[in-house]
Every structure is written in structure tokens, then in C-alpha cells.
Design brief:
Distance between the termini: 36 Å
Largest sheet: 7 strands, parallel
Order of helices and strands: EHEHEHEHEHEHHE
Number of helices: 7
Number of strands: 7
Bound molecules: NADP nicotinamide-adenine-dinucleotide phosphate
Length: about 250
């Protein structure tokens, strides 16, 4: 490539929820594009980091942190920045799903989903952006929303999840506008049904129904999200902010 606009060489990417699923796979692709990697997860992802470092010849570190712990998040970002020398890219991806009828949801069940999927995304984005501003740098933040922020999935009942993801899409736009003068771009991806550990214990009849109505007639893979994240992280997207890229095998077009 004469113009290597998708290269992430010399950049450091921090990925939340990178111990499994989408975060784990996308971390490998970001490393393949040249980025050094920092994985932040509820669980210890040091084995994932070590295997990325060995396979792609980049630096890779792992930190255990709950994204709902605002002080913990700020601490991890400071530690990772000191260790890596800089931070440039945030793939703000940790999230949970909860299936229960809205009529029966307890306050705790409602709050736990909003806390991880919305508050956690905000705490990490805010701490990351504060780090960039304090260092006089720009950067790129990519949040993981969902097609559930645009449509209401059936047959499962998941009002808390849908609401949290719609909020992530609008948070993305809000931060994009506020932080544009600071050189910080903020975008999101909205995956459709993606075959990860998150879907491991989902009822087979639901999965069968989903695939019967997805135009591609199959679930997506985490690998099929990596290109969009690399695009949004790289200099290929320097005029792109506040955008939501829906990657769903055509689901939301039906
Ligand atoms: P996953 O396989 O369950 O992986 C999520 C990762 O995030 C796990 O390692 C999890 O740790 C971690 N995590 C959860 N809560 C956390 C917290 N409070 N602090 C730090 N880390 C936390 O899920 P996935 O399918 O890769 O999903 C990743 C993102 O994509 C989520 O935001 C999800 O909503 C979104 N998404 C997924 C799909 C899909 O079909 N899979 C579709 C649209 C959007 P534990 O294992 O310990 O919980």
C-alpha cells in the first residue's frame, strides 16, 4: 500500500472486555495493524496479552478492572499510560446482556446493565479523554454499542440492554461534538448477532429464529468487526466522528 492509512504502528490501543469474545479477537487485529495493546477486563487477561505479544511482536499488557469502578478505571489508565509511554486508541467494548421481561425487572437488575453498558463506557471514555487532554494529544475512541440501540430484538425481552445501547450511540455523538476541538474522535460500532461467549448459553430456538430472519442467514463473527474498528482507530478516518457503523448481516435493513 503506497498510502498506509490503516496502519496503527507507533500507537497504543486500550481495549476493555478484551479477555474473551469481540474484545479478544479485535485486540489481535489491532496488534496485527501495528498497535501496542492494553487489555482491561474483570478477569486476568495476561495470557491473552502474552499470546498477542508473541504472535504480533508488539508490546501487550493486561489489567484487571471493573469498568463500573470509576476510580479504578482512572488508576488503570494512568498506570497503562505510564507503562506504555502513551495511549492513543480506546476500544471501549466491555458489556453485559440480561434477558428478562420489563414488567418483572428489579431495580438492581435494571441498574446492573445500565451501570456496565452505559456508566462504564462513560467512565472509561472520560478517563481516557482526560489523559489525552492532559498530555496535549488527540486520539480515537471506538465504543461498542449494538444494533439493539437501533431496533428492538425479538423474541428475547431485554429492555435494559436495548436502552443502554441506544444511550451509547447518543453518548458517542455527544462526546464526538464536545471533544472535536480537542482532536479526540469518538465513534461506535453496532454489531448484530455475533458468535461469542456472550451467546454461548442462549436458547437454541432463539438462535434458530434469529438466523432465519438475518438476511445473511447466519451469525456474524468477531473477525468481521475488526476492519471497522481498525478504520475508526486509524488515519483512514480522520474526518469521521460521531458515526455509528452497524455491522449486522443486513438485519436492521429488513
Ligand atoms: P463477552 O464474550 O461476554 O465478552 C465481554 C467481556 O467483557 C468479558 O471478558 C467480560 O468479563 C468483560 N466484562 C463484562 N463486564 C465487565 C466489567 N464490568 N468490567 C470489565 N470487563 C467486563 O461479550 P461479547 O459478545 O464479546 O460482547 C462485547 C461487546 O459487544 C459488549 O458490549 C456487547 O454488548 C457488544 N455486543 C455483542 C453482540 C453479540 O452478539 N455478541 C452484539 C452486539 C453488541 P466476564 O467474562 O468476567 O464477564
Amino acid at each position: 500500500m503506497k498510502h498506509d492509512i490503516f496502519s496503527l504502528k507507533g500507537k497504543v490501543a486500550l481495549i476493555t472486555g478484551g479477555n474473551q469474545g469481540i474484545g479478544k479477537v479485535v485486540s489481535r487485529y489491532l496488534a496485527d495493524a501495528g498497535a501496542d495493546i492494553v487489555i482491561v477486563d474483570l478477569n486476568d487477561a495476561s495470557l491473552v496479552a502474552a499470546s498477542i505479544a508473541a504472535e504480533y511482536g508488539v508490546r501487550a499488557e493486561a489489567y484487571v478492572c471493573d469498568v463500573t469502578d470509576r476510580d479504578g478505571v482512572a488508576g488503570v489508565i494512568a498506570k497503562a499510560a505510564a507503562s506504555m509511554g502513551a495511549l492513543d486508541i480506546l476500544f471501549n467494548n466491555a458489556g453485559i446482556v440480561y434477558h428478562k421481561a420489563a414488567l418483572d425487572l428489579t431495580a438492581d437488575e435494571w441498574s446492573s446493565v445500565l451501570d456496565v453498558n452505559l456508566n462504564g463506557v462513560f467512565y472509561v471514555a472520560q478517563a481516557f479523554a482526560n489523559h489525552l487532554v492532559a498530555n496535549g494529544k488527540g486520539g480515537s475512541i471506538i465504543n461498542t454499542a449494538s444494533m439493539s440501540g437501533t431496533i428492538v430484538n425479538v423474541p428475547q425481552e431485554q429492555a435494559s440492554y436495548n436502552t443502554s445501547k441506544a444511550a451509547v450511540v447518543h453518548l458517542t455523538k455527544s462526546l464526538a461534538v464536545e471533544w472535536a476541538p480537542k482532536g479526540i474522535r469518538v465513534n461506535c460500532i453496532s454489531p448484530g448477532y455475533i458468535a461469542t461467549e456472550m451467546l454461548q448459553f442462549i436458547r437454541q430456538d432463539w438462535k434458530d429464529y434469529w438466523t432465519s430472519i438475518i438476511p445473511f442467514r447466519r451469525l456474524g463473527t468477531p473477525e468481521e468487526l475488526a476492519g471497522a474498528v481498525i478504520y475508526l482507530a486509524s488515519d483512514a478516518s480522520t474526518y469521521t466522528s460521531g458515526t455509528d457503523i452497524i455491522i449486522d448481516g443486513g438485519f436492521t435493513s429488513v
